TrEMBL record, chain A:
Keywords: ATP-binding, Hydrolase, Nucleotide-binding. The keyword Hydrolase applies. This is Biotin-dependent carboxyltransferase family protein. GO terms for molecular function: ATP binding; hydrolase activity. It comes from Streptomyces malaysiensis subsp. samsunensis.
From TrEMBL, chain B:
InterPro entries: CT_C_D (IPR003833), Cyclophilin-like_dom_sf (IPR029000), PxpB (IPR010016). Residues 10-222 form the Carboxyltransferase domain. GO terms for molecular function: ATP binding; hydrolase activity. The keyword GTP-binding does not apply. Residues 202-222 are annotated as: Disordered. This is Allophanate hydrolase subunit 1. It comes from Streptomyces malaysiensis subsp. samsunensis. Keywords: ATP-binding, Hydrolase, Nucleotide-binding.
Amino acid sequence: MADRPELRVESATACVVTDLGRVAGPARGLAVNGALDQFAARAANALVGNAPTAPLMEATGFGVTLRPSHDVLMSITGAPAEPTVDGRSHPAWAPLSVRAGEKVRVGISDAGLRAYVAVHGSFDVPRLMGSCAPDSMIGFGTHVTSGTSLSLFRSHPPLVNRRFGATVFDFGIPRDVGRVSAVLDAVDGPDAAEFGPGLQRLYDSRYTVTPRIDHVGLRVAGHVPQRSITGEVLSRGVPIGAVEAPAGDELLVLMRGRGITAGYPVLAVLTSRALDNAAQLRPGQQIRFRRTTAAAATAAYLERRRLLDRIALRARTAFAELR
Amino acid sequence: MTDTWTATTVAISPCGDAALRVTVDGADTDRVWAAVHRLAGWLNHGVIGPSVTAVPTYDAVLVEFDPYHTTGELIASHIRAWDTTAGEHEESAGAVLDVPVLFGGEAGPDLEWVAEVVGRPVPEVIDLVCVKEHLIRCLGGPAASAMMDGPDFDVPIPRLATPRLRVPPGAVSVAGRQAVIGPVAAPSGWRQIGRTPLDILRTDSHSGTGTHPDTDGHPDLDTVVPYRPGDRVRFLPIDEAGYADLLGAAMGPRHDG
């Protein structure tokens, strides 16, 4: 049997193998989960020619050190510090050709929280309902720690641009692609009316990101609007990005690992683009919410998805030419 | 036959740019619930597109979608055109699950408190819990919990002021007019009256490897719990010895002989 390519993990702390999420989950009572920064995850896979749903690594807060057994093609996106290969710096948000045995170091920059590592051909990991996304509630998923070896479906011959003798590509990715904004766009929620004029303060106040941030929710401290009407709410499905006001002095923004039902009224809902941004917020950061419309949010989201389409197309074209 | 359906209304509210909340309002809560689940089933069947998924609860469906593939307006127009009564009389009766429960003590730390609120002795409360079949209304968070109609107590049961940080898997709890079985350990503000020794959640048999991510083989769309909305649960009181005997046995529907 030919030895199978693998990615050896020399150090990792809070790192998992994930994908875009368990789309079949919510209808069956499970959270969708998956990469919190969906744009960065999609971009990482696009840059190495993978399907959008291919499993990739998500490193939160701490860097990872990796060593492939074979030549591979990788990409690193999200909020990484400049990656190094055997000590040499390489740009993030670009394909990275790594030779067998070279050491890849991915740090997390001060500007964000999560980095994504995709490898051409992706990882062979267990799936549930078609997705490898970890679900902490049911104890499913592939956690990456020091000493883990991840099986790869295939290796990739070294990619060297004949003109430059190095892996230099321009896929039209804007320079500020990984910038994390302190402003989160949100649309008034389905229960906004229950908060009356007090809702406006959600958009006028400043909030501080607390250390209680994970796949389930992001807690921010600051002014909590109060409902102007009272009464119990029947359990209902709550959207990802829902801004809720449970008892206490913190707002809760639901992330992709949220329980799918809740009895709290929904003040506002973050836009898809704002959710990617929220995934990169760090404790202590000052943020505010900015009111927008669903139509404007969709336009902003489509702009990003079309950018991803262009990246995927250019990557496929470039690799085909170099073969 | 006069159709009381005309007295119900469907309201659609946006939930950000990637979800809609569809609420059904009507005098008959059972018909509202049934309509909500039919609507979700119809949407989950892929009629609008594979990126559209629906989470039904009591009086509402959360519809989630990828705005790259469809729009909230398009989905809303499909829902408005949907025949709310289609299949209303074709629903098959759900399965019945027999669920053994150890009541009180460590397995049900709130049982005595609930008995005080209900104003009846503990054995009578256990009888009330076990006498009826509890209809599973929906699967809720966390992890596909079975959300059921509760026992026929005379009063609703208040929640804990401060939720417990952890209730164990298999906990049977009540709050308001509802009852719930939780498949996994999780925080909860409900009143835990008992615990089943049965294993509820199964993830191992579904987690095959080797499907190539690029070809994305047929995803296993099975569920991780042995019940679904419309099924009914019958609780059976057991003692500590019975609990020990059944610990780790798989929960499943009753097979009537």
